[in-house]
């Protein structure tokens, strides 16, 4: 079964939450609130990015909002949810009509996470 995990950008870092396995049991781990930047449920929903279930070529988890490059292709892409296809796609930053449908061979194709839309917004230019 695929892990159902999310992350949200809060106070300059990612906070991870979702259903995780701990000591052989499935547990729910939520985002801890702080007085520094308390979030409403709507804000958590809007800031959350889901784990795709895929790993890049180095074994790093790929989340919605990650920015990736593929070996041999200089144009970066970002991982987005594609509503019409009901799945995640990698969309070219330079040409938004150019999309790849990742599958379990994202590792074999040479995709590598080089940043994300929160920590590295300059990569979107």
What does this structure look like?
The longest helix has 7 residues, at 41-47. The chain has helices at 41-47, 106-109, and strands spanning 4-10, 13-22, 25-29, 48-55, 61-63, 66-70, 73-82, 87-92, 99-100, 111-116. Strand 4 (48-55) and strand 5 form a beta hairpin. The chain starts with a strand and ends in a 9-residue tail after the last strand. It is mainly β and 125 residues long. The mean pLDDT is 80. Helices cover 9% and strands 50% of the residues. The strands form two sheets. A five-stranded antiparallel β-sheet has the order 3-2-1-4-5. A five-stranded antiparallel β-sheet has the order 9-8-7-6-10. The chain has a single domain, classed as YopX-like domains (SH3 type barrels).
- How many domains in all? 1
- Helix residue percentage: under 10%
Number of helices: 2
By secondary-structure content and strand pairing, the structural class works out as mainly beta
Percent strand equals over 45%
CATH homologous superfamily heading: YopX-like domains
Architecture per CATH nomenclature, i.e. the level-2 architecture: Roll
Sequence of strands across the biggest β-sheet: 3-2-1-4-5
Largest sheet: 5 strands, antiparallel
Mean pLDDT: 80
Poorly predicted runs of 5 or more residues? none
CATH topology call: SH3 type barrels
Under the CATH scheme, which class?
Mainly Beta
Question: How would you summarize this macromolecular structure in one to three sentences?
Answer:
The chain is 9% helix and 50% strand.
């Amino acid at each position: 079964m695929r892990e159902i995990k999310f992350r949200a950008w809060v106070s300059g870092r990612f906070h991870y939450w979702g259903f995780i396995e701990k000591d052989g049991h499935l547990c729910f781990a939520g985002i801890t609130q702080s007085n520094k930047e308390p979030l409403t449920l709507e804000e958590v929903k809007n800031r959350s990015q889901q784990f795709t279930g895929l790993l890049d070529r180095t074994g790093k988890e790929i989340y919605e909002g990650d920015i990736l490059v593929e070996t041999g292709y200089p144009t970066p892409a970002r991982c987005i949810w594609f509503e019409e296809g009901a799945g995640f796609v990698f969309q070219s930053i330079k040409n938004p009509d150019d999309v790849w449908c990742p599958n379990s061979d994202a590792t074999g194709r040479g995709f590598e996470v080089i940043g994300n839309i929160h920590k590295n917004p300059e990569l979107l230019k």
